[in-house]
């Protein structure tokens, strides 16, 4: 009897679509069985002598538009601590920063005097450019700890001090 051929010859029964489904099921079952007996080493290779420590993890609220500088780039990873009542002062960066708030709450005031608050577990981007001045403040009672990756044009400083924008309250350093 030929599966899927429709008849077996004299006095045979019709197999048709039912036989085709049976053949397909047998093929799928055979493939699954074959995969099950393949050694797992063929799928992945185990690591050896490698360790890792997660320093911080943060979640962005939306897309992180990462844009490294054109040309050679200095990549710097820093831990920054802002004491309670502390401020970074008004500044800008010549390249982007990707930050994760490890602990505390950071309050950033931007060039248009809008305010962004980032708490432990948050991540954010600080955009590049002299027109992107900002300041960071710790208005809380515990230190703010940030893990920051800088993507700077080769040789650029970490930050450039700037005067407060016109919209900032007079006498406020940050």
Automatic annotation (TrEMBL):
* Annotated ranges, domain Cupin type-2: 80-149
The secretion signal range is none
Q: Gene3D superfamilies, per this entry?
A: Jelly Rolls
| Protein name (Swiss-Prot/TrEMBL) | Cupin 2 barrel domain-containing protein
Species assigned in the record: Streptomyces laurentii
